[in-house]
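Quick note —
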Amino acid sequence: MAISISIQHINKDFPVGDDSIRVLHDVSADIRQGELTMLVGPSGCGKTTLISIISGILSATDGEITLDGQRLNNMSDTKKVLFRRENIGFIFQQYNLLPALTVAENAAMPLLAAGIPEAEAVRRATATLEDIGMQGQTEKLPRQLSGGQQQRVAIARALVHNPKLIVCDEPTAALDAKTGQAVMQILRDIASHKDRTVLIVTHDNRIFHFADRILEMSDGRITGDYSGQEFMHKEHL
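Predicted structure written out below.
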């Protein structure tokens, strides 16, 4: 499979008073298209910092990130914003839906931000919502939905502009087991597209079996690179 994300010798330092602390240490990995990759490890190990660098939200202290053949290191902040808008969809634990907007309007937000006329944006968002099982829900407000339904809206919002990379930060942590499995099946189906990559940060061991690949982190380093089956076997030893 083609490499979607190339991470080469990434270090990240954060200032602390007159000094600095290094939170990522020489991190290297290749993440492939058409795969669902999970980034796992204890709190504070650097997972969120790493996905923020992969997404162009943070800049590495040194090292190189290449996403779909484009080097993020060489981009200005303005170009990074445009690149994220076109190429990356985000899914969060807390959904981050706007309470005053309908389901369809929430899902349309990336298109509206890109200047697509409202009627067309809502039409495309409605079609995306229906593709993931939200028929008949598009005119509701977020408060009228269950947690699993709200997460489906967040998934539609991440998909509506047809990005190449979907980044998920603990997408099932706030969901019960059954609902979490249903959400993961949607993400599993999304990852099966050969031109799309799904990257999930998670602590949720209930969903590890959905992964094609699992990168394990500890103390700012990648300490293991496993297939999903290898990792499940390792966890049960």
